[in-house]
Amino acid sequence: MVSDSRTPTAAGLTRPSRPTPHDLLDLAGWLGARTGVDLVGDAAVVVTGITLSSQRAEPGDLYAALPGARAHGAEFAAAALGAGAVAVLTDPDGATRLPPGTPAVVVPSPRAVLGPLAARVYGDPATSMRMMAVTGTQGKTTTTRLAESGLEKAGVPAAVIGTVGTRIRGEDVKTALTTPEAPDLHGLFALMREREVAACAMEVSSHALVMGRVDGVVFDVAAFLNLGRDHLDFHADIDDYFAAKASLFTPERARLGLVNVDDAWGRRLLEQATIPMRTFSLTGREADWQAVDVDATATGSTFTVVGPDGLAVDGAVALPGSFNVANALAAVAASAEVGFEPSRVAAGIGAGGGVPGRLERVDAGQDFALFVDYAHKPDAVEAAIGTLRPLTGGRVIVVLGAGGDRDPGKRPMMGEIAARLADVLIVTDDNPRTEDPAAIRAAVVAGARGPGEVVEVGERREAVREAVRRARPGDIVLVAGKGHETGQEVHGTVHPFDDREVAAAAVREVLR
């Protein structure tokens, strides 16, 4: 990744308003105790922030110029300095590319020190709150959003960082990545500290762990939900993917682990983690935390949370599916393990609503059920359709595509699952990105061998309309793949597209 990311972020909303000044010489001395360091140029400057992007540089910033796949971040240093950056952090190669006289801290591997340095610049803000990490192939967004909602309703000032974005004490903050880069992340933590946040629930992706985005943070608890096929365009294989997730459960990254022992990979993690571990289960396996007496309906579930020392509290979640009970259980257990009252958190989750784009109902006056879900990987597609199937005596109609420039091996697998579990599968475009949309659809269709009827409708808007036109009273329509997303990427251009809005418009059109 080139360090000069062009993804826009509202910098004024993602940093503290009262930054702490640091002498560059002091920061270099602090780094020198950890790695080899050279100072270039006049070091008599004061640093108040840190950034990886020249386009988001602010006065007083230390600009981190890292080597990238296509360019070196040092090539953008002049722009960062022009925006007010006072110095550059880079490697020896980058130092040769800087404008003459640029104050610079030169280290062998700047990315390796970026997280701890960002934490230092912002005064180790993560230590001022209870930090909860959630990792897994499915359920990260739901679990963190449920935890944040439950804590807020329990009177705990909370924040959440993840796929849907960042929210601080109920206020949405736009961020570019599921897990922001380390400088942005620690800036967010500093902003949370200013706003007196007491707990932060955060999605931690395998990419974030491999690329050091959470370096400089030691989480109070890290929860592992599950592992399935995903991101094999980034990882060598499933074992490499698991190893990235497992790296979260080490003393350098977390103090306590919480693992789902219903998942085979979770049981494997339990055997190799190097920190104290707690367990949770939905299926009756022996565990520290369990959900029992589950009563599932089309609008959600009620259950009892059973915890250590005879604890038993009422739980509820306003999302259908047993996997959402597991997500809610993980949210309650993680919150309790860092010191919050489980009964109040559980009650807060029960009083809350759903999560954007996660089995989100769309109601535009139709006589059938319509859901939008983010399911875009095999396990998630199976879980979503499997959850909805028992809720109707009618048909299940699924609209599904696959993303371009991502693991192509999962495309026929998704087609096979959807055609096997749905009555009608409409294969369409998702985010083709730079690939040929027809080729992606062909790979999905190749795996879709029934028994469900398989229809190919390339244009996604028309595919949603086709699903709505086919739906009869009592049926369920699932539009899968994009969930909360509000754009569709085709050949490098993101076009406005929200499955929820498109589905509602299709219903109104059919009912007209």
Automatic annotation (TrEMBL):
Q: Which stretch carries the motif Meso-diaminopimelate recognition motif?
A: 430-433
The UniProt entry's sequence similarity note says: Belongs to the MurCDEF family. MurE subfamily.
Q: Which reaction does it catalyse?
A: UDP-N-acetyl-alpha-D-muramoyl-L-alanyl-D-glutamate + meso-2,6-diaminopimelate + ATP = UDP-N-acetyl-alpha-D-muramoyl-L-alanyl-gamma-D-glutamyl-meso-2,6-diaminopimelate + ADP + phosphate + H(+)
Q: One GO cellular component from the entry? A: cytoplasm
Under the heading Pfam families, the entry gives: Mur_ligase (PF01225), Mur_ligase_C (PF02875), Mur_ligase_M (PF08245)
Q: Which InterPro entries match?
A: Mur-like_cat_sf, Mur_ligase_C, Mur_ligase_C_dom_sf, Mur_ligase_cen, Mur_ligase_N, MurE/MurF_N, UDP-N-AcMur-Glu-dNH2Pim_ligase
Give the enzyme's main class according to its UniProt record, as a single word.
ligase
**Annotated Mur ligase central domain residues:** 134-334
Q: Name one GO biological process term.
A: cell division
Check the record and name the SUPFAM superfamilies matching this protein.
MurD-like peptide ligases, catalytic domain, MurD-like peptide ligases, peptide-binding domain, MurE/MurF N-terminal domain
What residues bind UDP-N-acetyl-alpha-D-muramoyl-L-alanyl-D-glutamate, as annotated? 52, 54, 178-179, 205, 213
Q: Consult the record and explain the modifications the protein receives after translation.
A: Carboxylation is probably crucial for Mg(2+) binding and, consequently, for the gamma-phosphate positioning of ATP.
Q: Could you say which cofactors this protein requires?
A: Mg(2+)
Could you list this entry's UniProt keywords, alphabetically sorted: ATP-binding, Cell cycle, Cell division, Cell shape, Cell wall biogenesis/degradation, Cytoplasm, Ligase, Magnesium, Nucleotide-binding, Peptidoglycan synthesis
The protein's name: UDP-N-acetylmuramoyl-L-alanyl-D-glutamate--2,6-diaminopimelate ligase
Originating organism: uncultured Nocardioides sp
> Mur ligase N-terminal catalytic domain: which residues?
47-121
EC annotation from Swiss-Prot or TrEMBL = 6.3.2.13
- Name all Mur ligase C-terminal domain ranges: 357-483
Please give the residue positions where the record annotates the modification N6-carboxylysine.
245
Classification via PANTHER family: MUR LIGASE FAMILY MEMBER (PTHR23135), UDP-N-ACETYLMURAMOYL-L-ALANYL-D-GLUTAMATE--2,6-DIAMINOPIMELATE LIGASE MURE HOMOLOG, CHLOROPLASTIC (PTHR23135:SF4)
Q: Which Gene3D superfamilies does the entry mention? A: Mur ligase, C-terminal domain (3.90.190.20), Mur-like, catalytic domain (3.40.1190.10), MurE/MurF, N-terminal domain (3.40.1390.10)
Pathway connected to this protein: Cell wall biogenesis; peptidoglycan biosynthesis
Task: Tell me the residue numbers annotated for binding ATP.
Answer: 136-142
Primary role: Catalyzes the addition of meso-diaminopimelic acid to the nucleotide precursor UDP-N-acetylmuramoyl-L-alanyl-D-glutamate (UMAG) in the biosynthesis of bacterial cell-wall peptidoglycan.
